[in-house]
Amino acid sequence: MNLENEVNTVTERIPCDWKKCILIKVSKDKLEAYMQIDRQCDEQTVDISILKESLNQAKVVYGILEEKLLHIAGNILAYRGEQILIAQGIASINGIDGYIELIRDDIDQNKNNTPILLKDGRVDFFNIRDIPSVLRGEEIARKIEPIHGKPGIDVYGGEIKPRTPKDPRFPIGKNVVVNKEGTSIYALIDGQVSITERGKINVFSLYEVHGDVDFSTGNIDFVGSVLINGNVLSGFTIKAKGDIRVKGNIEGAFVESEGSIEIAGGVIGYHKGQIKAKQNLKASFLQNAIVTVGNDVIVSDSIMHSQVNAGRTIVLDGTKALIVGGLLRAGEEVSAKVIGNSMATPTEIQVGVSPELRGELIEIRSKLKEINDNFEKTEQALTILNQLKQAERISDDKEKMRVKLENNIVLMKEYQTEGIARIQELELALEEATSARVKGVSVIYPGVKIMIGKEIKLIRDEVKRSVFFLKDGDITFMPMR
Q1: pLDDT for 91-101, tens place per residue?
Q2: Model-level pTM greater than 0.90?
């Protein structure tokens, strides 16, 4: 190897009384020293003391290869003209930079949304995105401290300082905070973790879809509010702990909010999917939709052939404000300009008790009927098994069946007692529905069935501008002012 060409060196030429030269070359990084002995030297002119003196005069004092030096001194002729590594320092070990580590590995802004292969071989094209959501107070990222390096020593005996590792700073964005120890970053609100410009960590309370909810987005499940700038296509699901706003239509999808839902367009339900909100729903129209809302449903245009349940009111307040077909239930009031149509399309309006309580009443009655139908058969079977037991002719399997039937009868009797008591409570609530109202601001057509509390009235003739309510246990009406 030609050291002159391969290594940038610092060269020391050692003067010698016997007019011979020994050349010491040190690499640019000062970690290696090389010795070159002139071809005119021999055992008569060079010994170990001269070799050491040459290194001393070149100020090479650390990492000297003593055995190599002795070998050279004993074999001068073999090493003449060669460049020999004669001293070696210790390189420094650079420190490792600290960094910010995200607690969640799903916070990837460039992650491709790909379908999921299910265990049965089918492909799930709907659940392709996991929104990186956090709750208030949840740790988002932590600082990994830098690791300091170790110094080295060059052949001159000098210290080689390692590179100082970088101590990272938290890229603080919106709605996050660093703890007092400066070691972790936490969310200040429930929301979506998002990495923005310059790597800033944010938590946003709103998750926004810039187009439709379709196969490119997949289903959405978010701890904050959701904004859809397009439509929600059939078969997809949106769940949000905050509000949901849709600038287009919802088509046969399942949309559930723990707040309110606002739809600039409307719902085309195809009698599948479902719209649920713990607070309110506002839309332009509902068509073949299934809707359950904790408080109020406000529709500007029409409700057509839909099943709508509202804890308080269902109000249509637009130009058309039309209800045709389906079943509408509200705890307090249903109001529209037009209810039904001239073709007497069956349309049912129920007010006076929350839909949940009315649904509970229907469920209890159905369960009690089922119990009553099976009770006598169960008693007869138990009587036969008891006779076998008394005669000591009962097998183990039949004994197990006998015990099971005994338990079933106990449970049925308990349910009958509790169910009858609960029905009485619910019927009392139905009887007290005196403030409930059904308003036909323009007209209510024949074919409309109105239920207030537990009372029912079928509209047989057109009724214009009227309010229906409960009085003295009967449904009556009066003109609107």
Answers
A1: 999 999 999 99
A2: no
